Amino acid sequence: MTSPAKFESYFNVIRDIIRAMHSLTDQQDVMDVMVAKVTEALNAKGALLRVLNKETNRFDVRAACGLGERYLTKGPVTTEKLLAFPSELGKVHVITDIWNAPRVEYPQATWDEGVRMMLDVPLAIDEHMAGLMRIYLTEKRDLSDDERDFLKTVAMQSACVLQRVELIEKQRSLFHHLAAQVEKRSSLGRMAAGIAHEINNPLAGILLYSSNLSKKVPEQSPLEEGLKIIMKETQRCKIIIQGLLDFSREQEPERELVNVNDIVKSALGIVENEFHIRHVGVQKDLAQDMEDAMLDKNQLEQVFINLLLNALQAVDDNGLVTITTSADKAKRAIRVEVADDGCGISQEDMEKIFDPFFSTKANGTGLGLAVSRGIVRNHKGDIQVESELNQGTRFMVEIPKLIETSVLREPS
Ligand SMILES: Nc1ncnc2c1ncn2[C@@H]1O[C@H](COP(=O)(O)OP(=O)(O)O)[C@@H](O)[C@H]1O
Ligand SMILES: [Mg+2]
């Protein structure tokens, strides 16, 4: 039986760990407390805590106490060695034969460190081993049932703490990421509106004077070619500025009762020629049961044109682009997909394609997707994308139907 003094010290460790659980939000602090307290309570030489790194699937050392630098700098431990007893997740493993135990990766170094016995205590989360606490003792001794119970309780509490802290850290980093995105979007929006405003008027001036001049220069004059280039390039600037204005204004949709199939058809009509010139086929698959909905026709036409042109620019000659509409009755939503069998989008670019000005094209403005997403979001919908490099890309636009169409049709 454990002496009252010993029992008190166990109680204190568990109390400290539970306190840490409620007060600390930094994973490192929590883990440092764990190893230090357990070493103290068992009168051990030291303790080491390894936690599963989900990316590498290895158990990395995350906290240590009482062990020499040389021992700690030994390489990583193979996962198989630590998982040698998966069925005994809730138990304490006692290792007395350091030289022959399969779970000991560096017996010589362990022996040199003065260790004669080790205790492995797995930390389990949802039936999986999320970590392992190894406790190092300088002499062999029997482990009482109370000590085992104590270690199991510490392991359970520690696993809970780690899980909780991991969740907090995940939420925190998600929050920072979102905050940065919001900041970036709003400052870009302000900047875009400012630039567009400042540049629009001088551009109109350049265009006016250059077209006046071009009318006045005699035919075949060497000036004519130069003026044409000035006018063409100025026109291009105006298109970019218009895109910027659309992006920064984020106009509220002017909704009317329309059928998305008709919007798709008119978008196709506008880009048809471009597809024809490039010998790229467009396959349209429009849902028969598509009902009318309250949408901004012009804005959505712009979205589909952007997606279709991107698809066209991604495919080789003789490539194929598909546009499909469907009605998701359960979610009361309209879905439009634009898919291509083109170059695809790399993992790295995937995070940036919706950023204003991000473009991988020599003449791209990088505004098409930013504007399109703005429009779809103003319709309370969203755009998703799936892509595989050199295989193709699929953009999925989903817009909720805010009002049941039948309600709108009812006679008043
Ligand atoms: N269907 C697609 N296939 C491959 N890449 C695409 C596709 N659609 C968009 N992208 C990528 O996203 C970037 C941004 O698109 P967008 O905002 O329309 O600007 P732009 O077309 O002017 O480059 C493109 O430059 C391209 O790298
Ligand atoms: Mg584009």
Give a structural overview.
The protein has helices spanning 4-23, 27-42, 69-72, 79-82, 107-112, 145-216, 222-249, 260-277, 297-314, 347-350, 368-378, 405-409; strands at residues 46-53, 58-65, 93-95, 117-125, 128-137, 256-258, 281-285, 293-295, 320-328, 333-340, 382-388, 392-400. The protein is an alpha+beta fold. It folds into three domains: 4-172, Beta-Lactamase (2-Layer Sandwich), CATH 3.30.450; 174-249, Orthogonal Bundle (Helix Hairpins); 256-409, Heat Shock Protein 90, CATH 3.30.565. Strands 2-1-5-4-3 form a five-stranded antiparallel beta sheet, with helices on one face. Helix 1 runs parallel beside helix 6 (145-216) and helix 7 packs parallel to helix 11 (368-378). The protein is elongated, with a radius of gyration of 33 Å. Residues 408-412 have low confidence and may be disordered. It binds adenosine-5'-diphosphate and magnesium ion.
The small-molecule ligands in this entry are: adenosine-5'-diphosphate, magnesium ion
Which series of helices and strands comes N to C?
Answer: HHEEHHEHEEHHEHEEHEEHHEEH
Per the principal axes of the C-alpha atoms, what is the gross shape?
elongated
Measure the end-to-end span. Answer: 85 Å
Structural class comes to alpha+beta
Strand content: 15-25%
Q: Given this structure, which CATH class of the largest domain is correct?
A: Alpha Beta
- What is the tally of beta strands? 12
Helix content: 40-55%
**Mean pLDDT figure:** 84
> Helical element count?
12
Number of domains: 3
What is the radius of gyration computed over CA atoms, rounded to a whole number of angstroms? 33 Å
CATH topology label of the largest domain? Beta-Lactamase
**Could you give me the name of the CATH homologous superfamily of the largest domain?**
GAF domain
CATH architecture of the largest domain: 2-Layer Sandwich
Note poorly predicted spans. Answer: 408-412
